[in-house]
Amino acid sequence: MSVLSGKNVLLGVTGGIAAYKTTYLVRLLVKAGAAVKVVMTPASRDFVTPLTLSTLSKNPVLSSFTNEEDENDTWNNHVDLGLWADYMIIAPATANTMSKMVAGNIDNFLLAVYCSAKCPVYYAPAMDLDMFKHPSTAHNFAQLASYGNKMIPAGTGELASGLSGEGRMAEPEDILSFIEKDIQSQLPLMGKTCLITAGPTYEAIDPVRFIGNHSSGKMGAALALEMANLGAQVILIMGPSHVVTDHALIDRIDVQTAQEMYDTVHTHIHKVNYAIFSAAVADYKPVHTADQKIKKKSETLTIELTKNPDILASVGAMEQRPFLVGFALETENELEYAFAKADKKNTDLLILNSMRDKGAGFGKDTNKITIIDRERSITEFETKPKSEVAKDIVNEIIKRTL
Ligand code: C5P
Q1: Mean pLDDT, to the nearest integer, of 82-89?
Q2: CA–CA gap between residue 46 and residue 146 (Å, rounded)
């Protein structure tokens, strides 16, 4: 999944021949999962049509403060558009537009949006080789860098003038990969690894029955996604669950039993920086698993159970261990039990859920948590979608480790 997935990307198109290539760039951005809006300078409309770009971006294309051809004419709010954007790309960026970006000379809608945007701005210069070499261009590059704008380097090759040299706009694929790499390099968890357990475990009684629980694996999957979105390489060890996970940085290993989960955790735990144990592991398993389906013979049936290994406690007891996050699901005396659990299992953070809270518990899309840290400080959170809860948990982890 691209780091641009779900992000708002504003593409500013200026008046150079390379503007025709922005049709491909819009397609690539949409394919990467971004919401794309295009703003154009008046001059750029001679090189590529607003209709093409609005069709590809699935959004209206704006190039002036008012819509003269619209009888219900409304004012286009450059501030709203600038603030909407998570990223702005100006491609192609002509020498003219660059000089106005430097000077703050807002003589068209695109420049007004640029000056209103608070997000990172990338620009892909495109001009003829002599314009590219002109001292004013070098000056503008330096000025734009000092404003925090990032240049996507121009290529060398055949130019529209028929001359050959430096100044060709970077190809759309290269623009996209430059931006993706740049965003990735700044993710806070880049280079970190995280192991997450999730879902229930199934302990076989016979070939058709098992002891299990109602855990869906949704909370663990949301945590894996959030860690991966922030750049961490994730090993997700998932008990039986229908939840789908799809992210290039998530390596998922499906397991059935607590023992399999334990073994898999201990194969990987030595190489991770963080471990989050959100799985609802069965505390007990049958002493014997019948080879054949148990027949209904007697009035009662007793199944002898034996304790499963406590995976979280086993990692808590390791001398060299990752930053450790455990979960506690309680039905009464929540805080008291949670403190005892945090001590016993030696967690850095303990995430407490209470079955008494509405919107918390198995299978739901929301959760309500309280976080307890090593110093026994308590942070309570509102009921939220599990994706938001995952953000809160990861945020607390980052606060304490980076
Ligand atoms: O002791 P309890 O099951 O309430 O502890 C819950 C925490 O311990 C959770 O983080 C859970 O994933 C973990 N756990 C474990 N192995 C077990 C039982 C619980 O890792 N056998």
Answers
A1: 96
A2: 32
281 lines ligand 1 (CB under 6 A): yes
Domain housing 28: 8-185
> Does residue 140 carry a pLDDT above 90?
yes
> What confidence tier does 71 reach under pLDDT thresholds 50, 70, 90?
low
The atom of ligand 1 lying closest to the CA of 308 is 21
Q: How far away, in angstroms, is 288 Cα from ligand 1 center?
A: 23
Could you say which of 59, 77, 213, 395 is catalytic? 213
Q: Are residues 173 and 199 in the same domain?
A: no
To test ligand 1's pocket by mutation, which of 311, 337, 355 has the most ligand atoms within 8 angstroms of CB?
311
Q: Candidates 310, 346, 354: which one to mutate for ligand 1, based on the most atoms within 8 Å of Cβ?
A: 310
Helix (H, G, I), strand (E, B) or coil at 394: helix
Please tell me whether residues 259 and 218 are part of one structural domain: yes
Q: Kindly state whether residue 3 falls inside one of the protein's structural domains.
A: no
Residue 306, domain member (yes or no): yes
Atom of ligand 1 nearest to the CA of 278: 12
Per the model's pLDDT, the better-predicted residue between 354 and 241 turns out to be: 241
Is ligand 1 within 6 A of the CB of residue 311? yes
Query: Residue 68's pLDDT is what?
Result: 67
Q: What is the pLDDT of residues 297-327, one digit of tens each?
A: 999 999 999 999 999 999 999 999 999 999 9
Is the distance from the beta carbon of residue 342 to the nearest atom of ligand 1 less than 6 Å? no
The reported pTM is 0.83
- Report the C-alpha gap between 288 and 305 in whole angstroms: 8
Last residue of a domain, one of 185, 205, 227: 185
Residue 363 has pLDDT above 80, yes or no: no
Kindly state whether residues 57 and 88 are assigned to the same domain: yes
Between the CA of 210 and the centroid of ligand 1 the distance, in Å, is 19
The answer to whether the beta carbons of residues 327 and 353 sit under 8 Å apart is: yes
Query: Is-catalytic flag, 213?
Result: yes
Helices 386-401 and 218-229 cross at an angle (nearest 10°) of 50
Beta bridge partners of 274: 194, 323
- The confidence band for 69, taking pLDDT boundaries of 50, 70 and 90, is low
102-119 confidence digits (pLDDT tens): 999 999 999 999 999 999
- CA 276, 279, 283, 288 dihedral sign is negative
Judgement on whether residues 326 and 260 belong to the same structural domain of the protein: yes
Distance 313 CA to ligand 1 centre (A): 8
Find the 326 Cα to ligand 1 centroid distance in Å.
7
On whether the CB atoms of residues 67 and 73 are closer than 8 A, the answer is: yes
